[in-house]
């Protein structure tokens, strides 16, 4: 999976995100590689209704690291269409997350 992440997605494929008309929440663990964090910008620059956030203290498999947090984040998004409190905007990583 990480090989695919580092290889990236072709720009032509990413450009298909411009057609997505539904709200989208793109999440990454704050402790993931910078490559993954940069991908959030690629998504939000193309998908018109995309919001990106970092999950503090989490790695790539944060849904397994903290399934209760995942449930809360998902439930909040599905009921409010807003990112859950405590999620960080991309580029804003707390010192303990580095």
Give a nutshell description of this structure.
With 98 residues, the chain is of the alpha+beta class.
Q: Would you give an account of this structure?
A:
Helices cover 42% and strands 12% of the residues. It contains 5 helices and 2 strands; from the N terminus they run H-H-E-H-E-H-H. It has helices at 2-7, 11-14, 34-46, 62-65, 67-80; strands spanning 24-29, 50-55. Strand 1, helix 3 (34-46) and strand 2 form a beta-alpha-beta unit. It is globular, with a radius of gyration of 13 Å. The mean pLDDT is 87.
Strand percent estimate = 5-15%
Helix content: 40-55%
Largest sheet: 2 strands, parallel
Shape field = globular
- The number of helical runs is 5
- Helix-strand makeup class: alpha+beta
What is the CA-CA span between the terminal residues? 22 Å
Succession of helices and strands: HHEHEHH
Total strands: 2
Question: What's the average pLDDT?
Answer: 87
Topology at a glance:
Elements: H1 2-7, H2 11-14, E1 24-29, H3 34-46, E2 50-55, H4 62-65, H5 67-80
Parallel strand pairs: 1-2
Supply the key terms:
globular, 98 residues, 2 strands, 5 helices, alpha+beta
């Amino acid at each position: 999976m990480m090989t695919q992440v580092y290889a990236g997605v072709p720009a032509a494929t990413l450009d298909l995100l411009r057609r997505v008309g539904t709200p989208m929440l793109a999440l990454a663990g704050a402790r993931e590689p910078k490559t993954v964090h940069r991908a959030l910008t690629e998504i939000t620059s193309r998908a018109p209704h995309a919001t990106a956030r970092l999950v503090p203290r989490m790695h790539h498999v944060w849904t397994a690291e903290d399934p209760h947090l995942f449930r809360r984040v998902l439930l909040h998004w599905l009921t409010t269409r807003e990112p859950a409190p405590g999620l960080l905007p991309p580029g804003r990583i707390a010192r303990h997350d580095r």
